[in-house]
Amino acid sequence: MRGRLALLVAATTGLTMIAFLVPLAMLLRDVAADRATVTATADAQAIVSVVGAADAPTVRLTVDRLALAAGRPVTVFLADGTVLGDPVAPTPATRLGATGRSLTARTADGGREIVIAVQGRAEGTAVIRTLVPAAELHRGVLRSWLLLAVLAAVLALLGLAVADRLARALVRPIVALSEVSHRLAGAELTARAQPAGPPEVREVAGALNHLAGRIQELLRAEREHVADLSHRLRTPLTALRLEAESMRDRDEAARIQAAADGVESAVTAVIRAARAATSAGAVTAGECDAAAVVADRVEFWSVLAEDTGRGVTTEIAPGPLPVALTADDLAAAADALLGNVFAHTPDGTPFTVRLRRAPAGGATLTVADRGPGIPAGPVRRGASGGGSTGLGLDIARRAAQAAGGRLDLAAPDHGGAAITLHLGPPRA
Predict the structure, then answer these.
(1) Does the N-terminal or the C-terminal CB of the chain have fewer CB atoms within 10 Å?
(2) pTM of the full predicted structure?
(3) Where are the beta strands (DSSP E) in 60-139?
């Protein structure tokens, strides 16, 4: 923006200089030529009385003195053909002057020929001729033009300096607004812009601050709402635990009790995350043993797989297998992938869970099944083609990104779907 303002000022100043200085330069040239012509005319007219009444020797002496003093050639043509002073042949202008007309004519080299007709001599009209060379007509013009050029350059530099200061005053608050917007985009919601600059920029700064405050209020309300909803789940969980305690089959009661405890732990984690002063949807950075976490979640889901007639193939690398993710977040991601298998494939569909050590550190977790597959397209939060909430794959994707990795979707040759989480190693 500073460059564009400087270019605008330079263009405006240049046009202004052209509009004013070029005519002024032409005027100075004409004034210099007219001044030289007037001076030469006045010198020639000073000897009119002598030429009109004196004899030839006196006229010759007077003409020679004038030529010496003025520094230009002076010639007097008498009516009898006598030429006094600078010996030149008669010109069309002098012949016209012999008819009684005084005039000024241009010469071939750009100078001016001044002719004055003098009446009163007995033999007829005499003609005084003097010549103003082109150099004398333009004397001092080049120096004046140089002064104008220097003045134009000074004015242009002064205009650019003023434009730069003005542009800096305009750009500085805009750059500050840009920095604040980037900080807000980076989840630094306490960032605020300092209103400065023109009224329009100050208004934008106030609007940005209001927007940031409104975002904070909305996020705070959303976190509280999520926490409240999660807290309400504890009531049915308590009832489920009481029902499990009243069951006669102790093994079945223990299994349901463990499931209820797992759900309550997840609810508690949601409440803590919702009330934490972190950005919405953020995954906590940390470290855990991926082998232990994945083995635990596979064991949990294997019971349901047995009830629905699904074959489970497990390939888990021996631990410890550290990754840059907390155990709760990795468990949530694994549950999301395994839960998708049960939610979107018919009973009896086999699936495979593979956890391998990555060559550069970290691990890769792959959950593959032989169901109908996943519709093509990017993973978007809240978008699902199977009638679910559409949050499972997004939870897994965000967990992979938090661990410095990514989520890949593939369609194996044998059909179905294969979802792979690339998890990076713990950060040093």
Answers:
(1) C
(2) 0.43
(3) 74-77, 83-85, 103-106, 112-118, 126-132
